[in-house]
Amino acid sequence: MLELVACRDALKGRYRGCLSRHAISEAQWRVLDTLNRRGPQDATRLARHAVLLPSSLTHILAGLEARDLVRARRDPDDARRIQLRLSRGGRELLDEIGDEVAMIDSAVTDCLGAADTALLCAALRRMRMKLQDDPDAPVPRLISGP
Which residues are in the HTH marR-type domain (predicted)? Predict the structure, then answer.
């Protein structure tokens, strides 16, 4: 199980330099990328799709809105809800960083090949869903010791 943690850290390390050169965190990148891929959405859906805790998303959005990378507006179908979307600045940042991220994505995929990477992603998605759906499911210990 420690291999999962080590792999996650190595994967994040591949992106960290690119993102830091553009002064955004990995979590901010996930929000921007999710809005780009899935379009405008409310905070609950955005947190779920970006794999973030709602309480973390609130802080992340404040920073992105302050930099005019994300905009919030009332949902036209339900005035109680806020729709979040990329701003022009957010799109420009994604355009600026997109080629470098695509190169990193490609290098990561090349580690296992496209087919095995797809299988791994599917297996990890099933694992995540199982763990999220059943909070009482036993979770393996990741650290040995008492």
Answer: 1-129
Report domain extents, the chain.
Answer: 2-133
Residue type, 97: I
CATH node for 2-133: 1.10.10.10
Those residues whose C-beta lies under 8 Å from the C-beta of residue 81, and which sit 6 or more positions away, are 42, 74, 75
- CA within 13 Å, CB half, 1: 7
3-state secondary structure 38-93: HCCECHHHHHHHCCCCHHHHHHHHHHHHHCCCEEEEEECCEEEEEEEEECHHHHHH
Residue 101 burial (CB < 10 Å; 0-12/13-18/19+)?
A: middle
Average pLDDT of the residues in 45-68 = 93
Per-residue confidence band for 135, with pLDDT thresholds at 50, 70 and 90: low
Q: What is the pLDDT of residue 143?
A: 45
On whether the CB atoms of residues 90 and 80 are closer than 8 A, the answer is no
